Amino acid sequence: MALSLDEALALAGLPSAEALAQLQNAGRLQAEAVGQLARHCLEIAADDPPNALRLLELAQAVHRETGAVDAVTPWLHYAQARLNVLAGDLDAAETNLLAAREAWETSGESFLQARSSLGLTQVLTMQGRFADAETAILTAIQTLDALAMDEIEARLVRFAARQNLATVLSYQERHREALEVLHALRAEVESALAASADADLRLHLTALLGETGVDLALCYGYLDRPQEAIAVLQSAIEQLTAAGASIERGRAYTNLGHLYTRTGQWASALAAFEAALGDLVGDAEPDQQPERWRLADVLFLEQGLAHLSLNLLPEAAADLARAAALFEQTGKRYELAQAHYYRGLLALREEALDAARAALSAAAEIFDSLANRYWLNRVRIAQAHAALLEGLEADAAATLDALVREASLPDQARALTWDVLARCEAALLSCRLALRRNEVDAANEQLSLAERWLAEAAAPAEPALLYPHLALQILHARGLLARRGGDLVAARRFFQQAVETVERQRALLPLEEFRTAFLDDKATLYADLTLALLDEPAPTEQALADAFAVIERARARVLLERLLSAVEAHAAGQQEMAAAERSAALRQQLTWLYNQLLSDNPDSRGAGQRLSETIRQHEATLAQIERRLAAELVEVEPEPLSALQAALEPCEQALIYYKAGDEWMAFVVDRRSAQIVRRLCRHASLDAALADLRFQLGRIEIGADYLTRHHERLLRGAGTALQRVYALLVAPLVHLLEAERLLIIPYGDLHLTPFHALWDGKRYLLERFEVSYAPSASVEVQRRRRNESNGFHSLAGFALREPSIPQTENEVQSAARYFEEARVFIDAEATLSQLQNAAACDVLHFATHGLFRPDNPFFSALKLADGWLDVRTIYRLPLRARLVVLSACQSGAVRVQGADEAIGLVRGFLGAGVS
Hints:
Oligomer: single chain
Number of strands: 14
CATH architecture of the domain at 5-246: Alpha Horseshoe
CATH topology of the domain at 5-246: Serine Threonine Protein Phosphatase 5, Tetratricopeptide repeat
């Protein structure tokens, strides 16, 4: 009598001697049990490797006990090979598969011999031995067709063999051949599905249709047919859902995310990857269920590319590192080479040229050994980009000229080695190089190639709809060429169309971090449009207003949208409760870790590094959970120049700074007029002056003894640095400054510049003007509209008394005396719950520890008695306070990201609605 899976698992959970005894007592200690146990091992291997291994070990024990019967020996090899593959030991898998195949061939089991070739094909493909894999699978198909067996299992194996052939062809970039195989296979499967009434068979066939849909979509994608690929994948996901094939559905979602990334649909890509992660990994921890994480290796690769495309560079680095490690474990050379290539692109983005060269060389070496010209061409484009960044223009030009010539060949000559993305990337990079060398005709020629190729690939759709990220680059380059030729009208038109393309993509991104990062590499476009609007001897009032509007689109826009989104305490729905609980648990762990990091007795340097790495890992997990909990942002239009003028007081002027290219400029605005002062200074001059100011101020932090001994010299150094910055940023505007109050709206590094302390050699700016700051004109206008001028009546103060901040209680008690209603929370009472209870007070005053995280500014935090209050937590507070006082170290520090988004603790409170 056959052993059921449940019986087999129960026996496998026992010590070997006890399991053998039970089989002996039941009269089942026979050679047939070996094959049954091995087949059960194969059945659960993918989903439950630990139990599969136990089944195999029991099968081997029974095999030894019953005399090693030849008929079941190949089943042991076959099952062992499957576990070898899952463990990443491809050499052992190949050895076991060859042994199984030889044994079945010797015993005349042609069907099983052919079936083992399917596993061998998979192993050879993973090793990059595509020619050997193709030979193995073609032989298997020939054998299976000759047998003409009609049993369910035989038909499914025949279908799987053709699916394997299509996969091998795709890995060799022979996508048209793979398409033919897949179309024929799907027709057979659909026919079998229509003719079958067997429920189990219909389930298998439905799953197979879904799996082949994934393969078909991959071919469509590489053949520049993304719309068909997306439609097929969406259908495949429905089929795999109906079949209950969650692992295969996770792979389908991964491929769908890849296609969305390829076509610039970033929000859809991230949603697909999130769904894939749920199917492939679920709640599994990497150290507890590594086999589940190995299933997600390609997911991490593709998600890394999406994060890279969105300028989420730390996330991309983590994804690609994880993918590369998994590919190395499992011996997947083709995918490992892709991971090296993407890591090379990441290093180029960070201008880490040594790391970029190393990663790209590693990718090229593998792709060359696989004879994969398609990926080699992409690597060569990236290497040309690296040469351009290094200033090796001749090397870059030689590589790009050869690539563009090859990409221009007729379809048949380049069918396996180029797609529209690579062709356009090569031409656009060549155009950029020509512009850099002032070779306008050559630049125009390369740009025309990119335009034609993109239009051909997108037809009949508009390129900006199907490939918006490529269309954007082409429009930007067209604008640069028009501006270079003196045609400002055309330049403005092209730049405006490019900005509109960016805005459409940006609006689809639902979350703050995505919108913030997305514009990180697009600031140049907004700057070029601004310059095109202002590049007249005397810009008109309308040109000035239009330029101001463009700058506001590229300045703290996400903060404005955060500010205008509904500010409510977050209430998690049933589906979000688990995420909220996981978030709370991670925050508790992080509280302990932060306290360790800030302890007065830090551990050794090595321990500190390990602690920092643990914090980063916890924060990465928490950030992912927080994104699920975060409310989507509204889409908001910035305020026009006239709105700022209307919001200013009669005795007030606004100074709005902006950097376009190498030029710093400033708007000087009051209620009646707006003027612009161009070319205040060059960026290099200001950068050097700000660096010196930071150095001089930093010297003061060395210690009290040093400060006492070098007081006069430190004061002179700081004064000289402040005067130098004043000369660059304020002196050119002094003749326009007439009001009593100045509203400063900085840009870039100026967010960290103390304008009020700038010195003209006699007076500080604060001695002449009352100075205030705003992250953007639009944020300030909104703030003033919401600000109630009925005075401040109530205060809630929060203070932690610790040796390093001994005066905190005195501070909040002193402040409390000036309010009609005041509540002070000291030490253990200074908790998050008390803050929530006091959220309606007019004023909140924090005297505690502050922590700024330049590497991860959304985790900048204030310390409370029961944990750390970070930016995202602040967003969710139901605050009604009009004034928040942050009396804590680093609480004013920010890191500027994206389109001038200053991220730090202040942002958290502004985003929560504080005036």
